[in-house]
Amino acid sequence: MEPTTDVIITCHEYGRFLEEAVDSVLAQTRSEYRIIVVDDGSEDPETLEILDRFDRPRTLLLRQENQGVSAARNRGIREGEGEYVVCLDADDRLHPQFLEKTAHVLEADSGGDVGFVAPWLRKFGQEDEIWRSSPFDPVLIGYLCCVPVSSLFRRSAWEAVGGYPEEIELAEDWSFWIAVVAAGYRWEVVEEVLYDYRQHGGNKARRTHQHREEVFERLVVANPDYYARYRDRILAELYSRFRSLDDVWHDKACALEENETLARQLRASRRNLETAREEIRELEEAYRSLELDNRALSKQAHLRNRALADLERHHEVSGAGDVDRLWEERETFRKSFEALEEEYRRLEQSVKGREGDPAPPTEDDA
């Protein structure tokens, strides 16, 4: 018979998500499990209404005054009897094979030194990202929470460390994993996404990140033996990481400077391009003007050719004698016109001369 697993679902004002979380457990491919829902003093009307009519198979509902998530988890675990335990927040979901694949790792560990099994998870909601748990590293866990809250652990490991630390409000699961490692356990990772972690404004992980200094202080206070043992190695790794980050930032600064130079060159190239485009537009306009002039000249040449062709046809029709006669008549007309012009100029000068002579005397002058 398979060892029984207790799935502890803690709920505080998350009634709108609770049914989804419970359904994800009821869909498990591993049959030996029990669900324990612990309401940690919810006051939201919607949550209270859902809890008042809550009735799901294989599920026990516990209700208490608000004492914090650690106290709620410990209460649920104490009420259970399962050899294995996994804690699930009411706004998250397990994949159907979560219990099957994580419990298999614990069952295959004949020495019992694997205290918990961490899956990969998928963030959903405001983010969409795969988060990968880190392989066992007793130093890494001291300065980086590298395994998720919904990892399957042995009840014996929980008992060995005295449960979740109820004096810590943030990062209580991180502190719990540190305590389990300090007690001599290690963890294994199932490199598959078996857990959905909902991202929204109320996530405690966001607040943990915002108060990292305070969180570290509380982790050290809650786990003094662990940090006394691994302090030097943690500091060495942090120094190494900071040096690496410093190198990265230096490289980024150099890259940024190169990018700024490239940006200036790009802006200059754009200005040159605009100038070239303007010159091209001017050349195109000049070309169009020349093309119009060329068309006008071509039209004039065509008209001249047509005129010459007409003259040639006229010459062929009229004959050379007629042309000579017409030329003589033209010359006679020209001479007559020039004579008339000469006479006009003579008369014009005569009129002007008269206008300059004194006027004849009148009776008033006499």
Explained architecture:
The relative contact order is 0.08. It is elongated, with a radius of gyration of 51 Å. By secondary structure, the protein is an alpha/beta fold. Strands 1, 2, 3, 4, 5, 6, 7, 8 and 9 form a 9-stranded mixed β-sheet that branches. The chain folds into 2 domains: 5-222, Alpha-Beta Complex (Spore Coat Polysaccharide Biosynthesis Protein SpsA, Chain A); 231-300. It has helices at 15-26, 45-52, 69-79, 98-108, 155-161, 172-182, 204-210, 212-222, 224-318, 320-356; strands at residues 5-11, 33-40, 59-64, 84-89, 93-94, 114-125, 129-131, 152-154, 186-199.
What are the salient characteristics of this protein?
366 residues; 57% helix; single chain; 2 domains; disordered C terminus; alpha/beta; Spore Coat Polysaccharide Biosynthesis Protein SpsA, Chain A; 9 strands; 9-stranded mixed sheet
If classified by CATH, what would the architecture of the largest domain be?
Answer: Alpha-Beta Complex
The biggest sheet amounts to:
9 strands, mixed
> What class do helices, strands and sheet pairing give?
alpha/beta
Average pLDDT number: 84
Shape: elongated
Q: Which homologous superfamily in CATH is the superfamily of the largest domain?
A: Spore Coat Polysaccharide Biosynthesis Protein SpsA, Chain A
Distance between the termini: 164 Å
CATH fold descriptor of the largest domain: Spore Coat Polysaccharide Biosynthesis Protein SpsA, Chain A
The radius of gyration computed from the alpha-carbon positions, rounded to a whole number of angstroms, is: 51 Å
Uncertain regions: pLDDT < 50 for 5+ in a row? 359-366
Helix content: 55-70%
Number of strand segments: 9
**The CATH C-level class name of the largest domain:** Alpha Beta
| Domains, number | 2
Number of helices: 10
As a percent range, the share of strand residues is 15-25%
Order of helices and strands: EHEHEHEEHEEEHHEHHHH
